């Protein structure tokens, strides 16, 4: 620890430790340019020069989305922690403990409610920092709880996805989160409430192959990797170089899988506009 | 010619001995016939004991056994009037998933499944049972037809996983799987899935989200193959055996966890030793599952299916 530890808030501290130890400057993975951490933070974690969208901390994203940066955390159900008593090179319970310590959250999905341009919304955010945003029982239950709350309060449900896929340490319990979240999405649709998926970097595997591809609207952040199989696996299977821009947000839009690629600075306005367009008739009807 | 797995070596040796004695007995050697009977009993007992205590990794090998009955064998043994249908009406035809209408015990059904292929030519034609988006979209189309004509759906699941390829990604592999799972959940007709060999991840769940999910005794159901899990979690693909054990992929474990509904017993020595018997027992299990679901309204069928999946993991 050095003087940085005393002046930099904890979130940034861990960020710095990972990216650029002993340094307040962050390197853009795309252009290599150096950005002062405060400039990055105030620019929604988008590198000003290159426009590269860095990973955005969950808290910053919540503050970006909700009016006056005000929101309420919704409770997420407790789940059996380690049903398989799993261990690989490390115990799964050990990994969970480490990730809880690192992120200060209990698992990969956080669900919050608040106002988006004066309209109630429920927002779920998947945190890639927590075991790669993997979809286990806790994440599945959190999404189901979020959707249930959206139905109860008659609000749109917006999810920001980021995940390497299934939580392998939970085996088939993890796999079953695909149909389970799908049931929740069907219930949301039956209530005719908008389901908006914002795909952030990266969204792959079983997450893409379930709730992330079942949105009424699919929005992607620029450059986000979105796909089912990992690029490495595909390369090994076909033994060829992958095409330029493969599995990137823009590629998915060109192939008809996402509606729009939206810069982070325009995200809030875009989401608000969509919710307004899709909800207004219903709200007038109810009034 | 029977092919033995490595771990079946002791049984193979005993079988060889039986064959030798059988040849001697046929030549009229009087002492050998008694010895033959003893050797036969010994070989049978060894096989039964071996298969009663297969490790998860051994089950993985059995589930992938080249002589294990595949989709087409089940079609031949289970149904009549099979009328396969082709194409997703959007892009193309994917032979990795085969499906159509048929009669099961006299009644019309829709039957869908992955075909791995029994020889090189068939394996290539069916892409080793690894489907592309077209395959899942064809499955969706068939399920819609089944719903429309009030026919139950039988899914026979046997895949290492959905095909990982550039073209598959380009055409929305993830979306196709998600829609197929969604369709399975929305059907107002009963659906029954049987994991007959490998239930590999998302590629399996796409057609395995059913009112009843059955597994053959030595089939496996995985979130990722033991090899993939080993290379991701252990960063060492040689740890596949350990991964197979720790990930709890056997029918017995999954039944205990409430993640599947029933196990279909296999003949002693596995389905590949006696495919006819394995298929017959599978037929019995499907018939009894369909019977249980027979008198339910479409709404009740949908709800009980959704409730079943929602309850998973809430009480272990």
Biggest sheet architecture of chain B: 8 strands, mixed
Order of helices and strands of chain A: HHEEHHEHEEHEHHEHEHHEH
- Poorly predicted residue ranges of chain B: none
- Sheet with most strands: strand arrangement of chain A: 3-4-5-6-7-8-9
Tally of discrete structural domains of chain B: 2
Number of helices of chain A: 12
Q: Radius of gyration of chain B from the CA trace?
A: 21 Å
Describe the structure.
The complex is a heterodimer of chains A (287) and B (316). By secondary structure, chain A is of the alpha/beta class. Chain A folds into 2 domains: 20-54, no CATH class; 55-286, 2-enoyl-CoA Hydratase, Chain A, domain 1, CATH 3.90.226.10. Chain A has 12 helices and 9 strands. Chain A has a 7-stranded mixed beta sheet, sandwiched between helices. Chain A has a two-stranded antiparallel ribbon with strand order 1-2. In chain A, α6 links the parallel β5 (119-126) and β6. The longest helix of chain A is centred in the C-terminal third of the chain and has 23 residues, at 264-286. The N and C termini of chain A lie far apart (58 Å). Chain B is of the alpha/beta class. Chain B has 2 domains: 6-53; 60-310, 2-enoyl-CoA Hydratase, Chain A, domain 1 (Alpha-Beta Complex). Helix content of chain B is 51%, strand content 16%. Chain B is built from 14 helices and 8 strands. In chain B, strands 1, 2, 3, 4, 5, 6, 7 and 8 form an 8-stranded mixed beta sheet that branches. In chain B, α1 runs antiparallel to α2 (30-52), α4 crosses α13 (275-293) and α6 (133-148) packs parallel to α8. Chain B is globular and about 65 Å long. The relative contact order of chain B is 0.12. The chains are: A alpha/beta (287), B alpha/beta (316). The interface between A and B is large, with 52 and 52 residues.
């Amino acid at each position: 620890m050095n003087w940085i530890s005393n002046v930099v808030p904890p979130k940034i501290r861990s960020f710095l430790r990972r990216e650029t130890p002993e340094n307040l400057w962050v390197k853009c993975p795309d252009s290599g340019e150096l950005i002062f951490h405060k400039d990055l933070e105030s620019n929604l974690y988008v590198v000003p020069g290159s426009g590269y969208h860095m990973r955005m901390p969950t808290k910053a994203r919540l503050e970006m989305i909700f009016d006056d940066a005000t929101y309420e955390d919704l409770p997420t159900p407790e789940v059996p922690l380690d049903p398989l008593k799993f261990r690989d090179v490390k115990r799964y319970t050990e990994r969970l403990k480490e990730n809880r310590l690192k992120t200060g959250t209990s698992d990969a999905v956080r669900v919050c409610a608040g106002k988006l341009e004066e309209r109630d919304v429920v927002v779920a955010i998947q945190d890639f920092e927590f075991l790669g945003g993997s979809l286990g029982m806790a994440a599945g239950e959190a999404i189901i709880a979020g959707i249930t709350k959206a139905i109860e309060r008659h609000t749109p449900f917006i999810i920001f996805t980021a995940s390497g896929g299934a939580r392998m340490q939970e085996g088939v319990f993890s796999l079953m989160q695909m149909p389970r979240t799908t049931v929740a999405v069907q219930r949301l649709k039956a209530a005719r409430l908008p389901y908006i998926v914002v795909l952030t970097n990266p969204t792959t595997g079983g997450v893409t192959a379930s709730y992330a591809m079942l949105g009424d609207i699919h929005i992607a952040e620029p450059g986000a990797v979105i796909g089912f199989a990992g690029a490495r696996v595909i390369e090994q299977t076909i033994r060829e170089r992958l095409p330029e821009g493969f599995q990137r947000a823009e590629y998915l839009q060109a192939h008809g899988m996402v509606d729009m690629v939206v810069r982070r600075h325009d995200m809030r306005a875009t989401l608000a506009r969509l919710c307004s367009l899709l909800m207004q008739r219903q709200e007038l009807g109810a009034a | 010619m029977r092919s033995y797995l490595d771990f079946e070596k002791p049984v193979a040796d005993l079988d060889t001995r039986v064959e030798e004695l059988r040849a001697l007995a046929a030549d009229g050697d009087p002492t050998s016939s008694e010895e033959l009977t003893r050797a036969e009993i010994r070989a049978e007992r060894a096989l039964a004991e071996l298969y009663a205590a297969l490790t998860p990794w051994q089950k993985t090998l059995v589930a992938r056994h080249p002589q294990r009955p595949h989709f087409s064998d089940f079609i031949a043994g289970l149904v009549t009037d099979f009328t396969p249908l082709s194409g997703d009406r959007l892009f193309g035809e994917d032979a990795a998933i085969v499906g159509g209408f048929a009669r099961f015990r006299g009644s019309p059904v829709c039957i869908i499944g992955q075909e791995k292929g029994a020889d090189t030519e068939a394996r290539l034609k069916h892409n080793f049972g690894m489907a592309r988006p077209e395959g899942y979209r064809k499955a969706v189309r068939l399920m819609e037809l089944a719903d429309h004509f009030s026919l139950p759906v039988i899914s026979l699941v046997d895949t290492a996983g959905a095909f990982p390829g550039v073209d598959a990604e380009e055409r929305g592999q993830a979306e196709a799987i998600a829609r197929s799972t969604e369709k399975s959940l929305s059907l107002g007709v009963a659906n029954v899935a049987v994991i007959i060999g490998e239930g590999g991840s998302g590629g399996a769940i796409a057609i395995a989200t059913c009112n009843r999910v059955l597994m053959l005794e030595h089939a496996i159901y995985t979130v990722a193959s033991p090899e993939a899990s080993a290379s991701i979690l252990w960063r060492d693909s040689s740890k596949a055996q350990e991964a197979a054990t720790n990930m709890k992929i056997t029918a017995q474990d999954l039944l205990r966890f409430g993640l599947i509904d029933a196990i279909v017993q296999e003949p002693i020595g596995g389905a590949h030793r006696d495919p006819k018997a394995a298929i017959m027992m599978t037929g019995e299990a499907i018939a009894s599952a369909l019977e249980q679901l027979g008198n339910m309204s479409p709404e009740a069928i949908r709800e009980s299916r959704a409730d079943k999946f929602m309850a998973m993991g809430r009480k272990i």
